[in-house]
Amino acid sequence: MSMRRVDSSDVKIGLKIKRDGTYVENKEGSNDLALLVKAAFITESIGQATLEGEFVLEDASGLISTLNGSEIWELKLETIHKKATYKLRAYTISDRVRAGNVEAYTVKCVSDEFLKNEVLSIFGNTKTLFDNKVEAENIVETLLEDSKYLNTPKKLHTEKTLNKHVFVASNWRIFDMIYWIAKRTVRATGGGAKDAKQNGFLFWENIMGYHFKSIDKMIDDVNQQSFEQETDINAGKAKLYEYTYAPKKSGDEANDDMKIEGIVFPADRDYLTGLRQGAWSGFSVGFDPNMFANGKISKDMLTATHAHEYDISEFWGKMSHVGKSTSKNPVETYDEDIKKLIQNPKRIRYDFLPNRMYDRPRWKVGGFTFGGTVREESKNYDEIPYLQSYQHLRVQSLKNVQLLVVVPGNLDLYSGYGVEIRIPKTKPVGSRMETDYKYSGRYVISGIRHKYTDETLYTELMLVRDSVPLPK
């Protein structure tokens, strides 16, 4: 049963540490350090493969002298919406200051798997390493769950993929290998247009576990979230919440938990940066490391005479979009002169093509060939220029609209999932406040920071979406 709030930011907190699998206790047998906590921060993001924790302690009990700096810190939080437990491994103690008999310091933590990743390396052919199961979801599952690798008990949420990955891993860390595969993986289903290939996969961790999904799949899941659907961590389903920017009522603070505390617009209508980064148009080039003349510039052209050109207007219909059909590309709202600039490609993106020296028979004498040929699966990166273009546009377009909002602590929000926002226009129409449709609506949560201070909990949400809702 969830706790009852007096104020919308009320929270219950507990903090324990484990050393070699056993809770650390004082002489009186107590192991709860909650009274020492001045502040605590938990961060998760679709851009990072670990949870991060920071615990700011004010210590007059001598705890610091007992720490070796590698313990597991177990933080328990409870709000009106949910209970959550975070188990993170300390990796450093910083900002240590002493004043009289009191010491203040910050313990920084990450997930155990993130530390294991630093000492585990992969070397060898993927067909051998993964027993011919070389689809992306199978490789990622093995790397995370197999006892030879990270051996994590955490849940993995992924999707079906189209292509196989046959290559030689050259002493890579596990997460580096996953990121490399993510850039070259294509969804098995999906796409706004028939036969459109969608790539642009992300790998991240939140309290639900690990996720290996395309941005398009993430958006599809966000569009399908509902207020009636309760969170199911095992199935990777999250409840949808709606927050409103509205004045608070005095004397009714306990019911303010669905109201936005503050809003920041980190980057609003900044198309100059987009022009410099080739966010909407440009060229994509693939280089053959053996012979430049064989560089794959596009899927139909094997010379460098013309580069593969990409444009957001051509790719837009192939993508999934936040808000489905009730939204449009923000580029369409710009002045005609600026649209011409956006459609004028300049930046060049490039990547190296896989070494395919053995696609041809190894020996040829007269009309006879010997040694066989490499199977078709060795060519699964044939469209790297296209995939590189799509991934870049997919990532950049997701940042078209950005909000940073602060809400009363909610542990039932997750990075990579959605939230509904309602923001009124600054100027009312008569006595009526109208909705600002440009910034209201559904968003993808790209990052979360739970912030505990002064016995209260607030949740900071970094929100992004690729499209602008159409006025109703």
Please give a structural write-up.
With 472 residues, the chain is an alpha+beta fold. Among the domains are: 112-224; 271-396, no CATH class. The chain has helices spanning 112-117, 126-129, 136-145, 174-182, 215-224, 271-277, 312-315, 336-342, 384-398, and strands at 12-19, 22-23, 37-45, 52-59, 72-78, 83-99, 102-110, 121-125, 156-158, 168-173, 201-206, 209-214, 242-244, 262-264, 281-287, 308-311, 327-328, 348-352, 363-365, 368-370, 401-408, 418-422, 441-453, 456-465, 468-469. Strands 1, 2, 3, 4, 5, 6, 7, 13, 14, 21, 22, 23 and 24 form a 13-stranded mixed sheet that branches. Strands 9-12-11 form a 3-stranded mixed sheet. Helix 3 runs antiparallel to helix 4. It is globular. The chain starts with 11 loop residues before the first strand and ends with a strand. Mean pLDDT is 85; it is low at 297-306 and 356-363.
Helix content: 10-25%
**Uncertain residue ranges:** 297-306, 356-363
Overall shape: it is: globular
Arithmetic mean of pLDDT: 85
Query: What percent strand?
Result: 25-35%
The number of E-state strands comes to: 25
C-alpha-based Rg, rounded: 26 Å
Described by strand count, sense and barrel closure, the largest sheet is: 13 strands, mixed
Going by helix content, strand content and strand pairing, the class is alpha+beta
Number of helices: 9
